[in-house]
Amino acid sequence: MLAPLIGLVLVVAAVVYVTAVVVAIAAVYGLYRLARAGWSAHRSRAAAVEHQRAQMAARAELQHRWYLAGDPRGTYGRYAPVWPRA
Fold this sequence. Notes:
Blueprint: H1 2-68, H2 73-76
Transmembrane segments: 6-32
Keywords: Membrane, Transmembrane, Transmembrane helix
């Protein structure tokens, strides 16, 4: 009479243990996927910032060459000032 009860308790304990292990493994895997997605987004943003900085440096170099050549675009860039009308 006591043996079936002990067997049932052992089966329930095994199911609870296996469930806990599966949940823990799923949580670790979920955190791994989340971290990987975050790192990928970070690398993408960093590449975009680097590209923007490279474009700005190229534009600055071009304007510097214009300035050295005496071209007014070297001083004002792409946006020439609007002089007030007298």
